[in-house]
Structures are given as structure tokens and as C-alpha cells.
Amino acid sequence: MSKDYNKYFIKPSIKDARKRINNDTQTIDFNEYFNIKGFGEGKTYALETFGCQGNEADSETISGILESLKFKKSDSLEHADLILLNTCAIRENAENRVFGELGRLKKYKRNNPDLILGVCGCMPQEEKVVEKIMKHVPQVDLVFGTHNIYKLPEYLETVILSKERVIEVYSEEGSIVENLPKIRENARKAWVNIMFGCDEFCTYCIVPYTRGKERSRDPKAIIDEVNELIAEGYQEVTLLGQNVNSYGRDFIDRSYSFANLLEDLSKLPIPRVRFTTSHPKDFDFKTVDVIAKGGNLMPYIHLPVQSGSNEVLKRMNRKYTRESYLELIHYIYESIPSVSITTDIIVAFPGETEAQFEETLDLVRQCHFEGAYTFIFSKREGTPAYHYEDLLTFEEKKSRLHKLNKVVNEGFYGGTKRFEGKIVDVLVDGVSKNNDKVLAGYTENNKLINFTGDQSLIGKIVKVKVTEAMTWFLRGELIE
Ligand code: 5AD
Ligand code: SF4
Asked: For 144-159, how does the pLDDT look when each residue is reduced to its tens digit (9 = 90+)?
């Protein structure tokens, strides 16, 4: 089946995505936009999600839209009538994985020509990806980006009923869409978007191009969503944004900030509030003071540092220094003594010298991080760092990553060890991956813990005594 695109054919442009227009963000109500029709009746879907929590949250919206069109979740890829890949563009290997998967999925299309194959998320926001899909994977029927998920009903109607191909990727972010349907993966823990996009333009990062201008949701919409989750029995929310600390910066009067939002959420009867991701430049002491009051604001902060060298931070356009980062870390430890801090680090950023890399190792030791996501710099076309001279061999880069991970793992272990013998509150997620007689959950400090207990405890917060610290997780005994 070869399809034409008559109606929908808009390709992305990284150049246009770089622009920031200072217009006011509009809010659309999904319910007013669509008259949902049940043309998915009798059809099944499979959705594969790659990348960050932002994509996981988007996939819950995609499932919500599909199920409101009466699609049902398929038990396998093989039997699905619609397969959608929600993709990640952050590093080259994430993209390679998606192209590998598309190669694998071609065979399903051969067996079932009516199968609809779609690609969405961050990768389609890059023009080179859309060109590659058109050239090498013409089996793909549907391509859309991060800004137009809400138009999925219209696209599917075109692909299914008019048998036309759809490629529609906007390079300028549009509105904030409220009241999107959602099928949440977890019945006790929920993602809550508080903002979209990013205006930081760190020189290595593709996100400001794939996710567009920073736009904050109205505080009332966020609080209403959390209240609905509470009514449904949710125990934990994680507030999502690329830089949550700049929440509200786009509001005209700018008087309501992230600290205000946390303060308001701390008054709601939900046991746990988390947030990610933070930017050291915008993480103000006022926010630390609010978290320090405790309550439902969890003592866990993910604070990506990226590098310990001022020279490298400058070339990354991070807009803070090693010294100001350390000052913030000290203030956090002083104010919230029980806190666990984790971070993100990029090694072998173009031009990073051995001495600058050593500065990162030294900073990691000083900060007592209890975990870190560590990455080798990956060149992203369209970003400034794509053009920076990159002289290290892959072996040298891997060696730096390996050295860094050794130091990071000491921190991981230190972070679990300090809880040995302590009693911790655990939100029980489910059974352990390796043994269904064992329960698994997370402590307030976001440590994975395994312990023996009845499955009726799933979804509850229980007290557990930590008996043994491993590098990546804790073992414990239920005490209540
Ligand atoms: N190369 C390697 N790591 C990157 N990250 C973002 N862009 C790149 C890139 N081009 C990392 C940063 C960020 C995390 C989500 O991914 O550390 O904090
Ligand atoms: Fe990327 Fe920097 Fe924005 Fe984070 S703050 S999403 S690293 S540009």
C-alpha cells in the first residue's frame, strides 16, 4: 500500500525551532477542539516509548487519546493494528535504537499491509530524521512531533479512512493543551507537567529545538490536576519540566514562582511531591527553604551539574560556575540534612582537557552525590557544539567515563550505606523484578528497596527497617 500525502505534509526546520517569539501562550481545551469519533473500534495499538519522563508522560496522553478513539492496547507488537514509536533525540545512540527498531518492525508491515506504523516525539522535530524516514523507511504512515500530539485523532482519521500518509511536524511550539485524556501507567504515582519546552540553549543540547519555547502551565490547572489525582487515590506526583526552577518566568506578572507552586502543593493531602529536572542557575534559596519545611516535599533533588570546570561550563552555556554550584549544594545540605542529591554529567565535551576532567571528578567527590547519570558527549546537528572541535578518540572518551563512573559508584554506595539500620517510609510499587515473593518500592530519598511482604501492600506507604545496603538498592524488613 503506497500512500500519498495530499493534506498533511509539513516538515520540521531546526532553524525555525531556534527562534523565540515573545508572544503570549494560548491555552486550548482538548474537549472543545475535538469531536472524538470511535473509529478505533475493533483495532489495537502498541506504543513504544524511548527517552525521558517527559516522553513517558506524553505516551500516557497518546494512550489516552487512542483509547478515547476506542483503540485497545495490543498484547504484542505482532498483533497490533497501529504501532507508534515515541522517540528521543538527546543522543545519537537513542536515535540509532529507534532506527534499529523501525528496521525490525518493517517485517510486521510486510505480513500485514494494513498495519499503521507511526513515529512521534523528539526525533521527528529534526529535519534530517524526517528525510531519513522518508528515504529509508517509506513503510512509515504517520509522523508527528512534540507540539501536535493533540491532533492525533485527525491524523489517524486521515491515515485510516482516507488512506493518506501524514507527515506533520511543527517547528514553532503552539499552545498549551489542557484536558487531554490520559491512561496513566501507574495507579499510585503520576507525572504532572508543570511546563513545556526549554529556553536555556546549553550548547550541546537538542531539547530547546525539539520541545520549543518555555511555557508554564497555569498554577490552577496544575493544582486541579493534583487534586483529581488525590481523589483517585494517587500517593505521589512528580512535577515535570526541563528546568522546573524557571517555572512561571513566562508569566506576564512573574510574581508566582516554582517556590510558590511547591508551597501550594505542600498544603494538599498527597503524601509525596517530587520534581525534575532542576537547573543550578535558577534553583533559588527560597525553593530550598520551602523544601526544607519537609511535609510532602521529598528530600531528593536531581541537580545536573554537567561539568566541574568553569571553562567547560562556559562553553556549555550553563551560566553558573563551579563555585556557585558548590555554594548551592552547601546551602541545600545545611538546610535539608537528610537530602539525597543526584546529578547528570557529560564527559569529553569538545575541548575538555585532562585537568578539566579531573576538576569534574573532584567536584563529584566534594558534592557527595548519591547517584549520577553519566554520558559521553554526543554531537547533535543544529546545536552550537556540533561544530566544536572534538579531538579525543573514542577510547579516551570511554576511559574518562569509566573513571567517572568509579567515583560515582562510591557515591551511590555511600548513599545507600547511610540508611543501614534506619527505619524508612516506603511507597510500595510492586513485586521485585527477580522474585515475585519480594516487594519493591522507593524510600522518600528515592532509594529502591526490596523486602518481604504481602502483595496487598502494593500502593501503600509502609515502614521498613533497612538491613543491608547494596550499591544500587537497599534490602529491608517490614516493621509495620
Ligand atoms: N550529549 C551527551 N549528553 C547529553 N545530555 C543532553 N544532551 C547531551 C548530548 N548532546 C545529557 C545532559 C542532560 C541529560 C538529560 O542528558 O547531561 O542533563
Ligand atoms: Fe537541554 Fe540545558 Fe534545556 Fe536541560 S537546560 S533541556 S540540558 S538546554
From this structure: 999 999 999 999 999 9
